[in-house]
Amino acid sequence: MSLELARLPKFVLQGRSSAFYGLLLLAILWAGVGFKFRTDFDNDLRDSVRESKNFTMVLEENVLRSIGEIDKALLYLRRSIETRKASTDYSTIVNTTDVLSDIIVQVAIIDAKGMMRSSNAGPKPTPAMDLGDREHFRFHVGRAAGPFGSNYEVPSASSVSRLRALA
């Protein structure tokens, strides 16, 4: 092949320019293929970045909506407990409170010692279960009784419903 390339100037001088034009055509063709590849690569990269940003926004909106719904449910449940605590038992409060949704799968009431007093999941009446060693309970131990904070941890299997959820 290198021998034929060395003869190229002689072929051109002899009037055999078709070999030169053939090589020129191949070079232009490969340059076009390279340009097209680079353009498609840049467009694909731009599209994937835009898609990633869209997925990130959807995920952020979903997380914010979920946390907002959980916070509203907690406030509603707390208000129900504070207003009806003297007149009804915890089981009635948990089973009549309308806080369940696609996001909230279980509602339980835990006393100050970490004992679960009532839950809408599992057997009725709910047996007392010690949850005092759980991180979501220990988060609230020793905090003031005023405005409560939320503690979201890694999803784990519930002791009662056996569903993986945030506690």
Key traits:
mainly alpha, three-stranded antiparallel beta sheet, 167 residues
- Major sheet: size, sense and barrel closure? 3 strands, antiparallel
Helix coverage percent: 40-55%
Total beta strand runs: 5
What oligomeric assembly is this protein in?
single chain
Task: Kindly estimate the percentage of residues that lie in beta strands according to DSSP.
Answer: 5-15%
Shape: rod-shaped
What do the pLDDT scores average to?
Answer: 78
Count, helices: 5
How many whole angstroms does the radius of gyration measure? 35 Å
Q: Would you identify the regions where 5 or more consecutive residues have pLDDT less than 50? A: none
Secondary-structure class: mainly alpha
For the largest beta sheet, what order do the strands appear in spatially?
1-2-3
N-to-C span: 73 Å
Order of helices and strands: HHHHEEEHEE
Structural notes for this entry:
This protein is mainly alpha-helical and 167 residues long. The chain is 54% helix and 8% strand. The chain has 5 helices and 5 strands. It has helices at residues 2-6, 8-13, 17-84, 90-96, 135-138, and strands spanning 108-110, 115-119, 129-130, 156-157, 164-165. It has a 3-stranded antiparallel sheet. The protein is rod-shaped and about 110 Å long. The termini are far apart. The mean pLDDT is 78.
